[in-house]
Amino acid sequence: MAELQVLLQHRNVPGIDGIDVYESHGGYAGLRAALGKERQAVIDEVKASGLRGRGGAGFPTWIKWNGLPKSGSAQHYLLCNADEGEPGTFKDRELLLKLPHMVVEGMAIAAYATRSANGFVYVRGEFVESATQLRKAIDQAYRRGYLGRNILGRSDFCFDLHIHTGAGSYECGEETALMSSLMGERGQPRLKPPHGPLPVVSGVWGSPTLINNVETYACVPHILTHGGAWYAAMGTQRSPGTKIFSVSGHVARPGNYEIELGTPLTELIELAGGVVGGALKAVIPGGSSVPILPAEKCAGVTLDYEGCQAAGTMLGSGGFMVFNDKTDIVALMRRTAQFYAHESCGKCTPCREGTRWISRVLDRITAGAGRMEDIDLLLSICDQIDGRSYCPLGDAASWPIRAGIRNFRHEFEHWVRHGSSPIPGFVPPVRSHGPGPVPGRQE
Amino acid sequence: MVAASAGRFSEAGQAQLAEIVSHYPDPGGAILPALWLAQREYGGWLPADAIAEVAARLGRPASEIQGVATFYTMYNTQQRGRRHIEVCTCLTCGCLGAYEVIDRLEQILGIHLGQTTADGEFTLTEAECLNYCEAATVVQVGERYFGGVNAENAADLVARLRGSEGCTPESLSNAIVEAIVPGRNAGATHG
Fold it and tell me: What value does the mean pLDDT take over residues B54-82?
């Protein structure tokens, strides 16, 4: 099987980041098609496509769109989550860098369908180059009448699009924390149902707010150009369409690969040139937050939402990391734990405390001073975070550790028994700092 | 608190701030971009005067601005070296040589992770995932990403940085402000 490129088809065409070349390759045809329809018909087209949110959760896109108020004069906001920070994922970064107009066009279509007059793209602070490319694209789109007042001559359609950049915080990729950050606050999450309102009811500045991922918006022009049925014919029945996977780690050709959902996991590894430096040991298929899959469980797994779930992991953001048999899984889990301890926003106790304890216990084990009961202690801390934290960051911190122990418990036991790695010659890095306050982060 | 009029924002910076404020229904939205602007205007970091000036210009308490600034890692509430070298050591980079890159950079620069060279030229820290894993090991310096860094070419990177334009906290902040503020030619049609 080969790639099936819909979004990435023209990514290497010279000048595709500019509006002329983008238009000559079918760009903005989706927006024109949308404006030829009633607003509800646009939402129905997205419904027919079966598109599910590409940020990680896989929630049906049309339901969000359909949830915004359809009458009255209330201000709506349209947000694009470009705060890509999930370790192992680099698709949104490349989409904004090479195909910024596709994202602008998708947002303009969504704005029309949902009667939103104002939009923001929340770009991760580190992605300066992507933000610069998006700036150029937005300015060009204004000049050509795809943004601003009376878009394409339609007096009933105005849409202003701004860029808001983050400043270094993984938590801001969580949609309610992103909204806090957009409103000028510390990037901490807000209550969600059943305790608080859905963003489409009350989001930024108390207004109905639609928030989608970069890749989700980038799918929309194609769906409007070719039809929802065309899109739904790709992929599987419950996971339609294509998905970009960011493949990295021990493979010959790391990079972004767009494949039909439902493609066997092992085929993606082959597309990326196969495993290098040793035999396959494990795969993390959907970013650092999802459970790790040992090699023996990879056969037969299909890359779609249901296939990954059946295998005991998740599709997540499509951050597909491949590890060969020279990889020390305990050290990998320790580095994962360090990430979540650093990025926990500090709002709720289970996550703030739990992530740091996981990190410290793993430090102890990889320092050769672990105790056998530490392994169950780790599981117990995971249980105390999962489902008990304010937002999904805590859950995401506990899932990989739990899966690491479930699938590679013998490696944890080896570390405890021998005080050294099961991988001959592997020495874990000695950090100059532990969890908690670290150099480079002001507390 | 200092009055905004006593601040250091240039005329261009003040105009950019006015433009930024107009993007939001509430001036609070402008806090993050205003901090980027201040970080540029104050030479790449946010001393107490910079926090006070942002507070005065947006009509917010300085404590609120300080609280926001200290949450985000890219706002420098302490001064750093002119080149802040951030080495990604997260999952992919960490498995593909990032720690050897750090060892080598510590050697070349004569400092440990988290320190700044005596001449104030370089600060070296570890970064969480920079989301450019296909090019592991990845290093960020100011507004630039460098991919494919390894122990062998780390010295070349340092040499290149010594002679390069940009790649400072100030140029990073400026690049972000330039991305936030609409282009001059587009201004006429921006509403």
Answer: 97
Chain A, chain B: beta-carbon pairs less than 8 Å apart: 212
Note whether B128 contacts A93, CB cutoff 8 Å. no
Phi, psi of A97 (to 5 degrees): -70, -45
Which of B23, B114, B186 is facing A439, going by the closest CB pair? B114
Tell me which residue in B125, B129, B145 faces A439 most closely, judged by beta carbons.
Answer: B125
Condensed to tens digits (0 to 9), the pLDDT of residues A253-273 reads 999 999 999 999 999 999 999
Domains of chain B in start order, with CATH, are 4-77+173-180 (1.10.10.1590), 83-167 (3.40.30.10)
A99 vs A273: CA distance, rounded Å: 25
Six-digit token pair at B94?
């960490």
Domains of chain A: 19-232 (3.40.50.11540), 242-324 (3.10.20.600), 329-418 (1.20.1440.230)
Encode pLDDT of A353-389 as tens digits.
999 999 999 999 999 999 999 999 999 999 999 999 9
- Asked if the Cβ–Cβ distance from A165 to B125 is below 8 Å, we say no
Taking Cα atoms as reference points, which of A389, A354, A360 lies closest to residue A374?
A: A360
Q: Is the ipTM of this complex over 0.90?
A: yes
pTM: 0.95
Nearest to A31 by CA among A96, A118, A111, A87: A111
Contact A268, A308 (CB under 8 A): no
Would you say B53 and B7 are in contact if contact means Cβ atoms under 8 Å apart?
A: yes
CB contact under 8 Å between B128 and A170, yes or no, is yes
Q: Which of residues 85-104 of B touch A (CB under 8 A)?
A: 86, 89-92, 94-96, 99, 102
Which segments in chain A show pLDDT lower than 70? 1, 73, 431-443
